[in-house]
Amino acid sequence: MxxxxxxxxxxxxxxxxxxxxxxxxxxxxxxTDTKLPSIANTSLEDxxxxxxxxxxxxxxxxxxxxxxxxxxxxxxxxxxxxxxKPGTAACTVxxxxxxxxxxxxxxxxxKGTGITANCIAPGPIATEMFFAGxxxxxxxxxxxxxxxxxxxxxxxxxxxxxxxxxxxxxxINGQVVRVSGGxx
Length: 184
Prior knowledge:
Blueprint: E1 24-27, H1 44-68, E2 71-75, H2 80-83, H3 89-109, E3 115-120, H4 128-131, H5 136-145, H6 154-164, E4 176-177
Parallel strand pairs: 1-2, 2-3, 3-4
Helix pairs in contact: 1-3
Family: Belongs to the short-chain dehydrogenases/reductases (SDR) family.
Keywords: Oxidoreductase
Organism: Quercus suber (Cork oak)
């Protein structure tokens, strides 16, 4: 659903038509890249790689949801914005951009449409990506830093995504829900 290019040329005056209905966008894309530790050493191409997909998905979803009469956008950046961990500058900046984009969509661009936009910012999750290249000492330290005493599992985050995708959450809009178990 997230194109790399617009479907029609910018000079086209013909309105877009959508062949499939969209009700919910959940964008959960992550990278762990140790070559992106600082802003000064991150190329524009690398930054583009870690932010562009989310931007394009939101752009497309906002247009489709408006034409479909409502729905929700749920973005899953990370807890890096609140934790500001050393060696994660470029990724943290991209996640801050996702959080800000969510608030702009909710407060301004989707105002009055019945579409909600929210973020879920999880802390460390027990996935292959988290464990890749990390030693046991590091993993134990992360677990120790979490007040709940464990790494969260994907199902812990999925439950919150599921809630935000229901009508029960229709008054939650423009929020960053930190599903971190207290990990900051």
